[in-house]
Amino acid sequence: MERNGVPFRWFLGATPSEVPILDWIRERATPGMLQQIAEADAGEDSEDHLTAIKLQLSTKPQKGLLHWTPREVLELTRWSQPETDAPAGDLEAAHTKRLLACALLLISAATCSEGDTYDYAYYNECTFLDSSAATLRQFTGSALALGPKVAWYALELLLWFYERVEHDSLTPFAAFCILLLGLDPLSRNAQPQTLDELIAWVDKQESDARQSLGDEVETSRWLLGLNPYESSGWVPLTTQAIEKVTLPVEHLEKIKNFIHRMQTL
């Protein structure tokens, strides 16, 4: 797929970087939260997982595809559903844990080519990248739930991610999440032309990837058909994003059209 457009040009003041979201996570993630993530695999190898999580949150993390520790517990935490699973009063902590897990998985996906110590017989790069679409979805949902500041830091991470990942069944999902996270700052700054351009860019990302994938496209569903692992969850996420902002009718209708196309075979 030919890369087109420079997404960060639509977000004045944004710096494509993983650093701000990691700094926020380091400040908010308590030892208890890290321990809970480390114990996500029924407590198995929790000490090793905890050590590995701390390494990834350090200033000198492992680059490339993550090893089983801590990838297994990060992926399990990714699947958590804070809105339904978190005890009363623990919603923010639950989203913070999921945000942390997803951020580390996305950074791993963005640095795949930088590591050289991974056992490809166990988990190959293509599978990891395909499954990272779900990570983008969960990451974006938690960022939106945690408020505008976190959503902005998450946007900066995804701009950084987009610059580094070229994978037809993943990149359009990153573009769509950039749109969802960008709705609030663009609407608050009253930039209708910019929002028009961003919506059109996302649609082109999807169509270019669909053409590039050819016979590998799973279904005709917009966006979801590009990835063998994705079939649900994107409609609720999109609804979550548009419910948090006040959009001009024409922009709201365009995004609702994305929802309709996701649901149409």
Give a quick set of tags describing it.
globular, 265 residues, 0% strand, mainly alpha
Secondary-structure blueprint:
Elements: H1 19-28, H2 31-38, H3 46-56, H4 68-78, H5 82-85, H6 91-110, H7 125-145, H8 148-164, H9 171-188, H10 192-213, H11 234-243, H12 249-263
Helix pairs in contact: 1-6, 1-8, 2-3, 3-4, 4-6, 6-7, 6-8, 7-8, 7-9, 7-11, 8-9, 9-10, 11-12
Rg (C-alpha, Å): 18 Å
Number of helices: 12
Oligomer: single chain
Given the C-alpha coordinates, what overall shape results? globular
Strand content: under 5%
Order of helices and strands: HHHHHHHHHHHH
User: Approximately how much helix is present in the residues?
Assistant: 55-70%
Q: Which structural class matches the secondary elements?
A: mainly alpha
What's the β-strand tally? 0
Q: Overall pLDDT, averaged?
A: 91
Instruction: Outline the biggest β-sheet.
Output: none
How far do the termini sit from each other?
Answer: 23 Å
Q: Low-confidence parts lasting 5 or more residues at pLDDT below 50?
A: none
